[in-house]
Amino acid sequence: MASRADRQISHRNFVSYIDKSREYYSASGFEQPYRWAAFNEVPFSPQTKPLAESNVAVVTTTFLHHHDSAHGAPSTNKQVYAHPVTDVPDTMFTNDLSWDKQATHTDDSESFLPLQALQQLADNGTIGSLNHRFFGVPTEYSQRKTGLDADQIGEWCAEDGVDIALLVPL
Amino acid sequence: MSLVSRHLEAQGITTIVVGSARDIVEECGVARMLFVDFPLGNPCGKPSDRDMQRSIVSLALDVAATAIAPRTTVQAPVRWGSDDWRTAFMQVDDSNIGALRAAARYMCGALVEVNGGKPVA
What we know:
The structure holds two protein chains of two kinds.
Chain A: H1 4-7, H2 17-28, E1 55-60, E2 81-84, H3 115-123, E3 129-130, E4 133-136, H4 143-160, E5 164-168
Parallel strand pairs in A: 1-3, 1-4, 1-5
Antiparallel strand pairs in A: 2-4
Chain B: H1 2-10, E1 14-19, H2 22-28, E2 32-35, H3 50-66, E3 72-75, H4 85-88, H5 97-114
Parallel strand pairs in B: 1-2, 2-3
């Protein structure tokens, strides 16, 4: 656990990306603010198996290879994918995603795709296993399209016997 | 990604979202979130800080295993250091508003072009 000085919060309020993006695009001249997904009901599946027996998978919004993107928007030609955890490239393709390119970088994939960390936790018995493949999903403006991608990831998780999914949006 | 989480939970799979855009995830509504108050890009810990990355992933798994109700958000006990990014990201001011509007006009023009000459909504 981090020392007290490291974990004391500096800001009581977190950054609102809903506010930031609305103000940014409004200032740019776009009149209609983006409508973020919002639901009243939230599905909940409590974990019933001990962590030490659980198979854990990672889902990322990053991709293995470069995809062309136009005008600063996320690439539109990306497809949901599954990939072996033993064959991860040194760097993942993140350029088209809206992360903070001034404050940080994504050269270390463990900072958003923690496969080594999970493998170590599997090796020391904290979790049962790291799933043999991880999953990637495009960042879509269309909730319908994301629903189809979620169906596919759900099928893959069922095939693999995934107990816990760690979802890491960039 | 929040929609994927909801889908998997409905299917019976325990999920946890590890992310830095807390309001977007909570607005959608997910079973569990580990909030990492960092600039967007490194939700699993600072680059090359293996100890921090391991502790964040471990905490995420603990939250996944112990949460008893949906919409559980836990904030990871970590700090980025500098806080300049909080205001600098997507900042709009007199120095860039002209460029932003020009880029938006260019983008709309390009979209009309790829849309077969029809205006985009």
